[in-house]
Amino acid sequence: MAQLAPTKKWDARYLGPVPHDASYYSKCLLGGVLACGTTHAGITPLDVTKCNMQVNPAKYKGLVSGLRTIIAEEGVAGTWKGFGPTFIGYSFQGAFKYGLYEIFKDAYMNLAGEEASNTYKGAIWLAGSASAEVFADIALCPWEMTKVKIQTSPAGTFPVPMGAALAQMRASAAETRFPFGSLVPLWSRQIPYTMAKFYFFEKIVQLFYTHVFTAPKDTYNKPTQLGVTFASGYLSGVICAIVSHPADSLVSLLGKPQNKGKSIGTIASETGFATLATKGLGARVVMIGTLTGFQWWIYDSFKSAMGMGTTGGK
After folding, report:
1. Residue 24: which region, alpha, beta or left (left: phi > 0; alpha: psi -120 to 50)?
2. Per residue in 154-190, pLDDT tens?
3. CA 311, CA 102: separation in Å to the nearest integer?
């Protein structure tokens, strides 16, 4: 694939170790698939437990006890419910989240110009990540709705195999609001989450290379750079979990049979903000911190293997 021809005019696409051409962006899309699809699917048991803690807190009181309850009632297989739609949905989401972020970030930097881009880096990170997530969630929504329904339905009341579950969701679209009934709460959860994820990741990486690893970034070996990536990703993930947890609780509650036909506002009012913001938060902090750390590590490992360098810097 032909690379972009450099121009004399300042261009954000030429600031990195390789030009940001169609080949670069395509690889970023693939890196996002690897980063999000594999990690989200790999922690399905944590996700199953967390969703049930949000939907039925009286029964599932904690992460460990909730996991034990699910295993006791449904076996180990019960902890892996929703693996298929999780893997497919978050692969789509990851492709758009990371790939479009790179595209939007470069586009907004070029719109702003060199001086404004340097002055308002944070605003560009926020705008780029928010724009990317709008499209990422449209791709994710049908799969997320199916995943949550599989994971939170009492055993025997809803199909577990992905094909049968999707067919049931389509057949009962009037009551499940499939395929985009959860899009607004998904945006409410994921856009703040992704803005925090990318902003704080870029900021923490910048702080590492400004105050801890003060030599030029390219003088450090790849394990060191990827260590900075993982640490920055983990810390940003903790912040993400806290910011987006109320909306995450709402997404889970939408799949609860008792809430069928209720509006988002009604569910939120009945549950209360304190419960939305705190129930299952500990499990989600552990899950999202680890998840985000590994996502960034996988993404940057892939970029590094492709000769594209790791993300961020001074």
Report:
1. alpha
2. 888 999 999 999 999 999 998 888 999 999 989 988 8
3. 10
